[in-house]
Every structure is written in structure tokens, then in C-alpha cells.
Amino acid sequence: QVQNACYPDDPARETRPETSRGTVIERTLSNSQIYPGTTRTIQIYIPKQYDGNRPACLLVCLDGAVYYKMTTVMDNLIFTGEMPVTIGVFVNPGVIYDKNGNVIRYNRSNEFDRIDGTFAHFLESEVLPMVESITLDDGRKLKLSDQASDRAITGASSGGICSFVAAWSRPDLFSRVYCTVGTFVSMRGGHTLPALIRKTEPKPLRIFLHDGE
After folding, report:
1. What mean pLDDT do residues 79-97 have?
2. Percent of the chain beyond pLDDT 70?
């Protein structure tokens, strides 16, 4: 007899009354020079412990807050000290609309599955400067650490390969990767990565690859 298996419930996903809860704000990015014509939403998570006096660590998540109860997990881990004070930047893929608001193209695969490092450049030159331009209602300015060891990037499926490629192409921007069921297949060159990696000197990256069925 085959029984259904599931991952055990994680207490970090449960809302705790003693935990200080962060806030999430949303911005729209529609003037991209790298992906012209696209519009996307970006959510920014600011933990309660962020005081604006020193730069915070950074977690970029692709496809928005794609993981179940993601901000609750961050609240709990930051509260207990298991995770440093970290600002989350949850980036949705771009969509191209016509003048009537109808979708012309979803740009997700074009952005996430390419392996040329363009998306890392997009994060560096357009997304993160936009985040750091934000001043909260209480006067706190968002400051992100510029140390790669303080920066992680994560995503699932096409977002998974994108998170890997962003760090692989720019280890000066991200040194930590959590990749879930990445599309390392022949969509936009992902199948060439094993040979490329074997022929390249090691890079200062810590990578967790996750898959399952």
C-alpha cells in the first residue's frame, strides 16, 4: 500500500504572539530599460527589528513571496536570532500590456530562464536602487548591505535557475542561493550549465538545491 508522504510541519511557519511582525509594502516598476515595456510588482518586507541605522541583510525571492508563509518564517527566525535582520525583496516577473490593458506577453521565461546574467544586472541597476530609494513613513530609509555574504537569492522552477544564474554570474552581488526544482533544462540554455560549471574555477557561493516529487 502506497501512502501519501508530506514534509513535516515546521513550527517556524506558525504565527507566534510574542514575535515582532514586520511590514510589507508594494511598489510597481514599469520604466525598465533592461526589460522595456514590462510592468511588475515588487513587495518589500521590512522586519520590525530594522532601525535604519545600519544596512540590513538582503533576501531576494523571485515570483514574489513564493514560499508558504514566507514573511511569518522570517518574522520568527529574525525574532529568535536564527536569522539576521534581513529585508526581503519579492520580485514578480514582468508582463507586457497593450494600451487597453490586455496582456501581450508574460515575460517570465525570457527573464528567468536565460543564463546570460541579464537578470542579475536588472536587480543591481534597477530593482535594488529602487528599494534603497524608499523612505518609510516613520523616516527610516532602507539600506541594504553591499556584502555578497549578506545577500541571498531564491526561487522555484524558472525562478530557481534564475536564482542560481544570478549568483553564478555575479558572485559579488549574491553568495547564497536556495534553488527549488530549478529548470536546468534546454529552455534557454540551462542544459549547458553542467559543462560550463565543470570548466570554471570554483566561485565563493553556498548553494542549496532542492527537488522532490
Report:
1. 97
2. 97
